[in-house]
Specification:
About 30% of the residues lie in helices and about 15% in strands. By secondary structure, the chain is an alpha/beta fold. It has one domain: Purple Acid Phosphatase, chain A, domain 2, CATH 3.60.21. One of its GO terms (biological process) is mRNA splicing, via spliceosome.
Length: about 400
């Protein structure tokens, strides 16, 4: 039997063709994309995508990303190679077409075998349980409620809104990741984030000096001051205790381990971006660790995680109460542990009343976003009226 592989890519920056050139698509069972997907299909998408001006090439989308070629031509080799992969699983970074990704806040299929994880999600695939968080953590916006360009007036008003908010739109929000902090099972295999946890810089690993700072010496001051990495990811890591935590963003390959008090540990793997002269630096391949199953369960084999959906639904039902608790952190961030304790207590008291109905649709495409999101809200979160985004 032919071996199947799992591949992980750091910052994609729209370079699907470069990525697939170093893979064997037909032997790749699972491909994890850690952000900066840049899923642009037309020039107008640039209004909701934060990309440095010199990389916009005068609005020539074909020079920015291969995604348009994939979306518009099923006959080319690139599209056919991509479709040979069992499942492509992606999260967002800080250079994304948020006008598209915000339409899938809870995840959904971009292509028949390409599933975007949404702002925060846990899915199951062939015996693996995978968590994904999109965006990067920014302290100024982390505690704020999320706003959506989709809900703005069309035309000039929406364009102006994106000009002001496209950067903040990819910032991680506390309410989105709260279900992970309430998660009660230690059975997550992989966590995917774009930026890094902070604890990987403070675990007395001698390789920080020899591998990380030797290549990126300008990180030293930010590491020493605690500015590099996210402390909320530290808490999520300690709660989930996954086998492997994958990150990208800093454009460097780096590996270390985080050990817990009981002797268990999480392996941390960061990957570089794709660079023409060293494409393999941005990709890591393993023998596929999941189950070798040919059972047709639909949806490319993806199943939503009932534990995550149950907690997420409870959070939306109790959103007003939760946001009041979160608001106390604006004036005193040191109360985080107390706030989490209060919310966990409320969840323990109410979790048994939550009934969920698993729902996932395939295939999913951009023109169906309202239908998909409305059905997700209705069936999984119990929200049947009001704006499409609670």
């Amino acid at each position: 039997m032919t071996k199947k592989y799992m591949a992980v890519n750091g910052c994609l920056h729209g370079k699907f063709e470069q990525l697939l050139s170093v893979l064997e698509p037909s032997q790749t069972e699972l491909l994890l994309l850690l952000g900066d997907l840049q899923l642009l299909s037309k020039k107008q998408d640039l209004s909701s995508c934060s990309i440095p001006y010199k990389y916009t090439y005068g609005g020539d989308v074909d020079k920015i990303t291969d995604f348009k070629k994939i979306m518009t031509d099923d006959s080319n080799k690139l599209t056919q190679d991509l479709h040979q992969i069992g499942l492509v699983l992606g999260i967002g970074g800080n250079h994304e077409n948020m006008g598209l990704l915000e339409l899938l806040p809870f995840g959904g299929f971009i292509l028949p075998n390409f599933y975007y994880m949404g702002f925060c999600n846990v899915i199951k695939y062939k015996g693996l349980k995978i968590c994904g968080i999109s965006g990067i953590v920014n302290g100024l916006n982390f505690l704020k409620e999320r706003e959506f360009g989709f809900s703005q007036e069309k035309g000039l008003e929406q364009t102006q809104w994106w000009r002001l908010n496209k950067v903040s739109s990819y910032h991680v929000r506390f309410f989105d990741v709260l279900p992970l902090l309430l998660y009660e099972e230690n059975d997550i295999d992989f966590v995917m984030t774009h930026d890094w946890p902070q604890n990987v810089f403070h675990n007395e690993d001698p390789h920080i000096e020899s591998q990380l700072l030797k290549i990126k010496p300008f990180f030293r001051d930010d590491i020493n001051s605690g500015k590099l990495g996210s402390t909320i990811y530290d808490k999520i890591m300690d709660t989930l205790r996954p086998e492997i935590w994958f990150s990208a963003h800093l454009h460097i390959n780096y590996e270390t381990s985080i050990e817990y008090e009981n002797g268990d540990f999480t392996k941390f793997i960061a990957l570089d971006k794709l660079v023409p002269r060293r494409l393999t630096d941005g990709v890591k391949q393993f023998e596929f660790p999941g189950e070798d199953s040919n059972e047709d369960v639909g949806n490319c084999g993806i199943e939503l995680d009932e534990n995550f959906i149950r907690i997420q639904k409870w959070c939306y039902i109790n959103k007003e109460t939760i946001l009041k608790e979160i608001s106390t952190l604006q004036s005193d961030p040191s109360k985080l542990d107390k706030v989490l304790t209060n919310i966990r207590l409320l969840y323990q008291q109410g979790k048994n009343s939550i009934v969920i109905e698993d729902m996932l649709k395939k295939p999913f495409y951009e023109e169906k976003v309202e239908e998909y999101t409305r059905e997700y809200l209705s069936r999984n979160l119990g929200i049947n009226e009001g704006p499409i985004y609670p």
